[in-house]
Amino acid sequence: MDKKIITPKEKRVILENFTSLSTLQGISYLIPLVILPYLIRVIGPEKFGLIAFAQALIQYFMIFTDYGFSLTATRKISLCKDQKQASTIFSTVMTVKFILAFLSYLILLFLINAIPKFRHDWLLYVFSFGAVIGNTLFPVWLFQGAEKMKFITIINIIGGIIYTVSLFIFVKEPADYLLVPLLNSLFFIITGLLGLYIAFKEFDLEFVFQSYSNIREELKTGWEIFISIVAINTYTATRIFAVGLLTNNTLTGYYSIAEKITGVIQAFPLASLSQAIYPRISKIFAKSKRRALRLMHKVQHSTTLTYLLAIPVLFFLSPVIVKIACGKNYPEVVISLKLLLLSMFFISANAFKIQFLLVCGRPDIYSRIHVLAALLGLPLIFIFIHYFSYLGAAAATITIETIIFISTSQILYALTNNYRKPR
């Protein structure tokens, strides 16, 4: 029988990585909130909504180029035995990401030429695409798998500060709105190059051109996770995109502000803890399935209780939060935020349960849950937005996350029943 759920050394590693990722997530989301009132005042909600719509489109390309490596490659690196193996994994993943980034750019050019809505603001989308390049270059998955998250934090804090200062210096009037995606892209590319430099220096990596068979195998390995992430973003990133298609830039701006605020609350500390614990719990699972399951439940119960207590408080403070974030009180943002906070309970209560499906080697089930949620959620989003405007996106989110929560709980209980028995 396992006497301890987690050893002091494991706890220290998780805490160090959680602290680094929490700082990173906090900075990543707080920086936009710092500049949010300034941008809304200078370029206005309409241009802000247009930029948010472009970012929602670019998000699809970032998902495509990531190809699920944030999970599959992270797990591989966490179980890596030597430097040679790490170099092979690194080389294969980066090669695939470069190929996917090039294909993404070709697709963007096609969309700009084929669709009038995109062609009218073509420069906005081209400037925004730099974020895809930077995201491709930055081997976040490598640092996460090696449990060296402090490097990610340092790089992004420096880049974030430079980006923020640049916005205040160069964006002075509505006509400067194109500088927002341009500066954002430069921030991504610079941090990506720094990440690569540190990766080579810290881990003594070598980039080796990979054979077609290795590339194909990597694509095959990540396929189910990729489909899952595409499915997840079908009902997450699509919300802003759908609001932009079915309403107008101003309402898109209001709704995107609410999502940004919700993102801060969700990322700090939920996303940070999830990313910090994933490589460690994968290692624990390889030694003791029962201990890994107990640790997952302990973390999940603590997280659920934290958000259960925090969400009602945030719900009533929503007008104050919006006023601080936007510089004034927008009723449209407040009501969107309140609805999204309700969905957050189900997200927080399910975060580590659904992640555990990957830990125990069942990406097929993980994928199936999200694909079914996408098949239900995508039409639901468009139907709700059609009838309830921008608020429909938030209402659809509550419905979808509730279904995912119930499904995951039932499946995981049946799947891990044998892990509960003492050995």
Describe this structure in words.
- By secondary structure, the chain is an all-alpha fold.
- It is built from 18 helices and no strands.
Features:
mainly alpha; 18 helices
Compressed to H and E, one letter per element, the order equals HHHHHHHHHHHHHHHHHH
Number of helices: 18
Largest sheet: none
Secondary structural class? mainly alpha
- Poorly predicted runs of 5 or more residues: none
Helix content: over 70%
Which helices and strands occur, and which strands form pairs?
Blueprint: H1 8-66, H2 69-78, H3 83-114, H4 116-120, H5 122-128, H6 130-137, H7 140-145, H8 150-170, H9 179-203, H10 212-234, H11 237-246, H12 249-287, H13 289-316, H14 318-326, H15 331-348, H16 351-359, H17 363-388, H18 391-415
Helix pairs in contact: 1-3, 1-6, 1-8, 1-10, 1-11, 1-12, 2-3, 2-10, 3-6, 3-10, 5-9, 6-9, 8-9, 10-17, 11-12, 11-17, 12-13, 12-15, 12-16, 13-15, 13-16, 15-18, 17-18
Write a brief structural summary.
With 423 residues, the protein is mainly α.
